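Whiteboard transcription, Tuesday session. T.W. wrote the structure tokens on the left side:
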């Protein structure tokens, strides 16, 4: 598995607002298009016949000052859906990691890190505000996207596969020898 440069990763991302600020050495920043509140009623069951996703209620951003060009969302503690400006199209042998930006974490908000495959025309994430309040500006960079290239057919590279095979060949006796 090989981590692509930010420039190469950006070729798989549509909707980048300002490449100069969003494309970095080994990642692309994703920006906020919209935020929705999560309706607190969702249902999960064993077979999926009674599955109901939680609803979403769009939250309107507001200007902090009349002269502001961009608006802000004032988020209180809780869960939200963040919709990104960007979309993603990966090749069959690629995988992307979506993770929170470190600045997002320092505000008291976060989201899970997750792997993505294929084409995703509308990227969004469950965003968790743990601080009492967090203000998010329109087009704020809240997440990072890193793209990895796998082996030829979506498999691990020979180096990784070889290391895994060597690891599996060791017997419990070999492990005890290495611990001494």
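and on the right, the sequence the group agreed on:
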């Amino acid at each position: 598995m090989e981590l692509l440069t930010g420039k190469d990763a950006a070729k798989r991302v549509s909707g980048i607002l300002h490449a100069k600020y969003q494309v970095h050495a080994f990642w692309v920043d994703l920006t906020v298009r919209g935020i929705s509140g999560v309706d607190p009623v969702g249902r999960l069951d064993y077979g999926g016949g009674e599955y109901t996703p939680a609803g979403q209620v769009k939250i309107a951003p507001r200007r902090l000052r009349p002269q502001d060009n961009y608006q802000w969302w004032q988020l209180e503690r809780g869960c939200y859906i963040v919709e990104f400006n960007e979309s993603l199209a990966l090749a069959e042998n690629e995988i992307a990691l979506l993770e929170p930006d470190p600045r997002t974490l320092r505000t008291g908000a976060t989201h899970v890190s997750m792997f993505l495959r294929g084409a995703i025309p509308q990227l969004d994430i469950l965003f968790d505000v743990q601080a009492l309040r967090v203000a998010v500006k329109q087009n704020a960079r809240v997440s990072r996207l890193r793209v990895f290239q796998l082996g030829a057919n979506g498999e691990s590279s020979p180096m990784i596969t070889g290391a895994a095979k060597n690891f599996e060949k060791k017997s419990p006796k070999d492990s005890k020898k290495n611990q001494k």
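Someone added at the bottom: The radius of gyration is 21 Å.
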